[in-house]
Amino acid sequence: MSLVARTKRFVLRAILMIGVPVVVLVVAAWLYASGGRYVTAENAYIKADIIHIGSEIDGRVAQVFVRDFQAVEEGQLLFEIDPEPFGIALAAAEAYPQGQGFIAATSCTRAG
Questions:
Q1: What is the mean pLDDT of residues 48-58?
Q2: Which residues are 103's β-sheet partners?
Q3: Average pLDDT over residues 3-10
Q4: Are 49 and 70 in contact (CB under 8 A)?
Q5: What is the pLDDT of residue 111?
Q6: What are the backbone angles phi and psi of residue 35, rounded to the nearest 5°?
Q7: In 3-state terms, what secondary structure has residue 62?
Q8: Which long-range contacts (CB under 8 A, 24 or more apart) does 102-109 make?
Q9: pLDDT per residue over 18-36, tens digit each?
Q10: CA atoms 104, 106, 109, 112: torsion sign
Q11: How far is the first Cα of the chain from the last one, in angstroms, to the nearest whole number?
């Protein structure tokens, strides 16, 4: 092998053994620095006392008296459930005090 061929082979080997890993390290450092290691507004979390609430009865919510994340006090009215279905059930119960006709009256009003 001639001296020129050995020199070319040495330079190529040096480029491949040193240059390529340096380029890979520079690219990896850039990706790490510009990557998602910092919290942004899209993935930030608020640690607060938040609970889910619900009613003990079924019904449509007619009005809401609070906003999201608003602090509330004990006993504060949060929402109002539509009273119309309960008024109909009360009227049916008063019309049929024995209770047997109540089931028939409520099932007829639901079917109609």
A1: 76
A2: none
A3: 89
A4: no
A5: 46
A6: -80, -165
A7: strand
A8: none
A9: 999 999 999 999 888 887 6
A10: negative
A11: 101
Q: How far apart are CA 65 and CA 30, in angstroms?
A: 50
Worst-scoring range by mean pLDDT, 10-24, 39-53, 66-80? 39-53
Specify the higher pLDDT residue, 88 or 49: 88
- Contact (Cβ atoms closer than 8 angstroms) between residue 55 and residue 78: no
**Contact by Cβ (8 Å): 99, 75:** no
Tally of CA atoms within 13 A in the half-sphere of 57 that contains its CB: 10
DSSP code string of the chain: --HHHHHHHHHHHHIIIIIHHHHHHHHHHHHHHHSS-S--GGG------------SS---EEEE-S-TT----TT---EEE--HHHHHHHHHHHH-TTSHHHHHHHHHHHH-
- The answer to whether residue 104 scores a pLDDT higher than 90 is no
Query: Does residue 95 contact residue 105 with C-beta atoms inside 8 Å?
Result: yes
Question: How far, in Å, CA of 58 to CA of 86, rounded?
Answer: 10
Q: Where are the domains of the chain?
A: 3-35, 61-111
Residue 79 in tokens? 């929402």
